Backbone:
């Protein structure tokens, strides 16, 4: 398998050959990073999509520009790898790791003492392996962009460990919690995405040290960037119009919310170009009822809604060869390792639903 994967640097190929079972988890982590990136930016002008025909998961034109969007891409993909490896460890799917072996004996929190038990997610093993694999291409380069990528990779790995929670089970008479057994568990990956999205908004512009040994905050040339802050070199474009050089797909054809004043609102999303309105019929499941035992029966309801899409700029054709930007990338290829190797870790909007015009019941269906 490893010999057929393109663009692996030497260290990555060695790890692939030595730990082939972990490579599947790395592919799953890359996929999870893509989906979470698209979820977090689904209502923004830039929504983590790429050009059709671009073989990379995120789009080479996006990750080649040293923008804050590229910073997020590297962080979330790195976090996805840690998350997927740790999850596989806990499930017993990997030969070289299991639950966290350090969580033994007695522990303490603000509620008192407890006994470590259950299966604590082994984020230490996952973090160490992800660092070795994901950072390998950047360590081979050591140029300004490589330093930026290494920093953001570390931010992503740290985010997974930061968003862990203590889960406990009580043992006692009549539900009393005199004795507790606890374990450390990762939060849902969406919580990691939420955390990184917040750091995206406060990302730090940096410059390289004169001796090339590290990064400094651009506005305060003697201070290093925070370990928890995403960093970037180049300012982001506005992503209003299509520009392959900057990685912008433009917002022409994107769905927008006519009543919103946020980033998904038509004024902001469409960059002042205006929007088109189309009336469509939408069928959804409704009036679902639980029947003992054990099925849920729903009706199918149909309603007519107005949807709004941004007009294209005069410099863009009405039909362009790009994916519909509010939809995720094609998923059937993302889960395999071949697609994963085209991600940054290897060398080399929402419909606006207007007021309901008509609703009718069209029949029942069991689900």
Residues:
């Amino acid at each position: 398998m490893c010999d057929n994967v393109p663009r692996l640097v030497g260290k990555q190929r060695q790890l692939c050959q030595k730990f082939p079972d972990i490579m599947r988890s790395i592919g799953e982590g890359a996929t999870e990073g893509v989906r979470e990136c698209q979820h977090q930016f689904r209502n923004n002008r830039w929504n983590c999509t790429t050009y059709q025909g671009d073989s990379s998961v995120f789009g080479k034109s996006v990750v080649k520009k040293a923008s804050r969007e590229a910073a997020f891409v590297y962080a979330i993909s790195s976090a996805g790898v840690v998350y997927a490896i740790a999850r596989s460890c806990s499930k017993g799917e990997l030969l070289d790791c299991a639950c966290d072996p350090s969580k033994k004996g007695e522990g303490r929190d603000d509620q008192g003492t407890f006994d470590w038990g259950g299966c604590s997610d082994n984020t230490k093993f996952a973090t160490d392996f992800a660092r070795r694999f994901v950072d390998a291409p950047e360590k081979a380069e050591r140029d300004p962009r490589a330093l930026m990528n290494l920093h953001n990779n570390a931010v992503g790995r740290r985010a997974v460990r930061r968003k862990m929670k203590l889960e406990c089970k009580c043992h006692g008479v009549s539900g009393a919690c005199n004795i507790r057994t606890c374990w450390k568990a990762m939060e849902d990956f969406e919580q990691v995405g939420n955390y990184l999205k917040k750091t995206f908004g406060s990302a730090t512009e940096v410059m390289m040290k004169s001796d090339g040994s590290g990064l400094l905050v651009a506005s305060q040339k003697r201070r290093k960037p925070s370990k928890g802050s995403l960093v970037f070199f180049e300012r982001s474009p506005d992503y209003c119009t299509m520009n392959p050089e900057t990685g912008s797909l433009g917002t022409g054809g994107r769905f927008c919310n006519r009543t919103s004043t946020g980033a998904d609102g038509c004024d902001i999303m469409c960059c002042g170009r205006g929007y088109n309105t189309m009336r469509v019929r939408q069928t959804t499941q409704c009036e679902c009822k639980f029947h003992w035992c054990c099925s849920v029966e729903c009706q199918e309801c149909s309603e007519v809604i107005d949807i709004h899409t941004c007009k294209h700029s005069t410099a863009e054709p009405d039909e362009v060869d790009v994916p519909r930007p509010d939809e995720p990338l094609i998923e059937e290829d993302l889960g395999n390792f071949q697609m994963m190797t085209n991600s940054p870790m290897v060398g080399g909007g929402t419909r606006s639903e207007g007021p309901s015009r008509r609703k009718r019941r069209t029949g029942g269906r069991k689900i």
